[in-house]
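Provenance and format

Records in this collection were gathered into a single text stream. Each protein contributes a sequence line and a token line. The two records reproduced below are adjacent in the stream.
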Amino acid sequence: MRLHYTPIPTEIANSYRSGQPDAFSLTPERNAASSGRGTPCRHCLKQVPKGEPYLILAHRPFKTLNPYSETGPIFLCANDCPAAAPDFPAAILTAPHHIVRGYSADERIIYGTGAVVNSFDIPLYAADLFARPDVAFIHIRSASNNCYLCRIDRV
């Protein structure tokens, strides 16, 4: 089994860049310049480059609404950036730990799957979660702020 680290889709990133409303029906906020740290783009899965503009917006990384459809702030390169390759996104996993948890096919948290995991142990933990037939996909979130970083799919 291979793990595929999935960024937000290009069409969604482009809609936010064009000023379409975010998950709270607000226009994404444009910031003039990133410091090059602490602004991980959810599309290229890299830090927004120093001096480059970026967006802050509310994103809900789910197709459906249910009590588990978490919505929260994310950063996005304001200018076009390439979608991330499916490889482990080390460039944005700079904190020592992240929250990793499994979701069912109907987009609900599967109790007992959530854990604070050492960042470089995420592939091992994800493989363990995907050994469970009820885990359809996994989210990686900030351990300090709970912000969504990316999704993991099995291939």
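Adjacent record:
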Amino acid sequence: MNRSSFLKHLALLSAGTALLPRLKVFQNSPFTEIRNGIGTFSMRGGTIGWMARPGFTVVVDSQYSDTASDFLEGISRFDSGPETVLINSHHHGDHTSGNGTFREAGYRIFAHEQVPVLQRRGADNPDEVVAADETYSENLELDAGNETVLLKYYGNAHTGGDSVTWFENSNIAHMGDLVFNRLYPFIDRDGGASIEGWINLLERVSDEADSDTIFIFGHGNPEFGITGSSADLLHMRDFLSKVLEHTQQGISAGRSREEITQIESFDEFPDYISPSDFLSLPRNLNVAYRELTE
């Protein structure tokens, strides 16, 4: 796994992202409000989710130091603070490289207990990593005034430390990179990923949602955007199921790894795009082969 290449490719995904028409887009701004003072921020890297309310600011993911600075400048124009919280959905650098900027601004950082471990494992200088101040193992509930924020761990999926962040009163959930909306996903096997676990997670989260739940996604095909519904979670579940099914059928038929992974697309999923060779179906199939044979 080439970590720096992964981050460069993911940084490109949010530049042209289209958003659902019901969302409030501020003119010439990367900020988009969904409802109840909760919204998204898109520049480079994984989508930032935010809640700005009198007395409280809650942020999910930090992108990079420069975009984190842009975010903090912009969020100050909302009716927000002074209690400030940053949540890391997982450890990848396009979601955590702005942590230092947020800490300097006085934010407390929360994450699953595996996130600091995985951050340091993948860092060139582990001692310089800015990681969570507080971690949790299964669930963590934060009282943000008139909003209950629930961090929930469902098991190994995209990585070994993914959180779903539920804004319970507003019925909004930030999925981090647990949804690549109609994009071939990055499956971080070396960071604890499990395709089977990911499939189960998407089913469980969908079961916990209702028709009014809005999900925020870490990355998205510009045609489909970075927000959506349970239908988008189940669409990705079906894609991942197809990845495992195709790979298992090839193994059972005695085909080689090269034969199994040379397919470029599935006819059943024409909307999935590959923004680079790094995020592609062959790479997904290679990870599935490892999962099924190791």
